[in-house]
Write a structure and sequence with these properties.
Blueprint lengths: L6 E6 L3 H12 L3 E7 L3 H11 L4 E2 L2 H8 L3 E4 L7 H9 L4 E4 L7 H14 L2 E4 L7 H12 L5 E8 L3 H15 L5 E9 L13 E8 L4 E7 L15 E7 L2 E6 L4 E4 L7 E3 L5 H17 L9 H20 L3 E2 L8 H9 L1
Parallel strand pairs: 1-2, 1-4, 2-3, 4-5, 5-6, 7-10
Antiparallel strand pairs: 7-11, 8-9, 8-15, 9-10, 11-12, 12-13, 13-14
The protein binds nicotinamide-adenine-dinucleotide.
């Protein structure tokens, strides 16, 4: 069997997530890592030795010019997004894979979206929890029709907004067939977490009206419901769907459970979010999308953009009050406006 074309990859940001990406790219025969970048020379040298990559540079733009990869991956903290999208586009890469959250404001997200679209560069954003067997099982139950007419999708996490909210929204949208959102209302509380590298309100909640009539309910941070079945607090997320004849939900660190039309009581199964399990298919589907434009990656940037808009609409609603209609137009950067409103 023809194994398919090998795509070259350059990775910037060799911290926790850069390493996860490098592990999966290195293990997949469809990819060859041709360049590594980090501003931390020691970390860069260790990664080069670990993955056997000859080319390294502390300057991502220089790396891209030198190695001309098919795929540019960057796993930097949320403050670096648009500049790295720009250098990837200017270097002529075919696809950019980067970390959530996709931006710090709607203005930045729109700029990223337009830059990629005008250059015809594909993108994926790492909402890879969906590859977990428990996440997949809930999707399977929802799609089987065993919940009857789905009227509500929901997700909550005790981790704070810029870490967790786009994950929740991505999976809630997925369980709702990626229906478009019409409007959002939101409310938030507390400014202590604005000093974090993932600057966020301490707590935020939002309601989403989807075009198919389904209601979305999402919450993040201190004050979101506990998930007592899960002991590690980053994994205390519960995401699911309710219908006229039952519900199905995933606990990020605690499997899945459901009651369906035919289950005769609660049914449940295992699963726990595991990077080593979730990253290989996430990476492999990048090759499949590059091979064939019809095999659109489940974590495509277009979908991430729609989820990010919902999160930003929750903030605008908190600041401006009332329903915020989607899609959003450029406006005041949301995080600054929210911090001011909550102070
Ligand atoms: N998808 C997920 O499940 C998941 C999980 C954890 C974190 N994340 C996200 O991943 C991103 C990175 O988080 P992390 O935990 O890997 O951070 P990290 O601090 O471990 O790694 C970031 C790396 O980027 C490097 N860096 C900074 N500026 C750079 C530059 N200009 N050029 C090259 N390298 C640069 C740093 O030196 C560091 O090594 C964040 O946005 C975070 O929200 C996603």
């Amino acid at each position: 069997m023809n194994p398919g074309k090998t795509y070259t990859v350059a990775i910037a940001g060799m911290g926790k997530r850069g390493t996860h990406h490098a592990d999966a790219f290195a293990a997949d025969p469809r990819f060859e890592i041709v360049g590594l970048c980090d501003i931390d020379q020691e970390r860069l040298d260790a990664a080069a030795a670990e993955y056997g990559v000859a080319y390294t540079n502390t300057d991502a733009e220089r790396m891209l010019a030198d190695v001309q990869p098919d795929v540019f991956t960057f796993c930097t903290l949320p403050t670096i997004r648009l500049p790295f999208i720009r250098i990837g586009v200017e270097a002529g890469v075919k696809l950019i894979a980067y970390e959530k959250p996709m931006a710090l404001s709607t203005n930045e997200a729109i700029a990223i979206h337009e830059l990629l679209a005008s250059a015809g560069v594909k993108s994926v954003v790492s909402h890879q929890h969906r590859y977990g067997e428990h996440y997949q099982k809930v999707k399977e139950i929802v799609d089987s029709g065993a919940l009857g007419r789905v009227h509500t999708v929901y997700g909550h996490a005790t981790g704070w907004m810029m870490h967790m909210m786009t994950h929740l929204i991505d999976y809630v949208r997925w369980y709702n067939g990626n229906a478009e959102a019409e409007w959002v209302v939101g409310q938030a509380d507390g400014t202590a977490k604005f000093s974090d590298l993932h600057a966020s309100p301490d707590y935020i909640a939002g309601l989403i009206q989807f075009e198919n009539g389904v209601r979305g309910i999402v919450e993040c941070g201190e004050g979101a419901p506990d998930v007592p079945e899960v002991d590690y607090w980053w994994r205390k997320c519960r995401i699911g769907a309710q219908g006229t004849e039952g519900f199905a939900e995933v606990l990020t660190g605690g499997g899945w459970r459901a009651v369906t039309r035919d289950s005769g009581g609660v049914i449940s199964g295992p699963g726990g979010m595991d990077y080593a399990h979730d990253m290989p298919p996430y990476i492999h589907q990048i090759a499949e999308w590059l091979d064939d434009p019809a095999q659109v990656h489940p974590c495509n940037g277009e979908s991430a953009f729609k989820g990010f808009e919902i999160m930003m609409a929750m903030i605008r609603s908190t600041v401006q009050r009332g329903k915020i209609a989607l899609p959003l137009e450029p406006d005041e950067p949301e995080l600054q406006a929210l911090q001011q409103a909550l102070s």
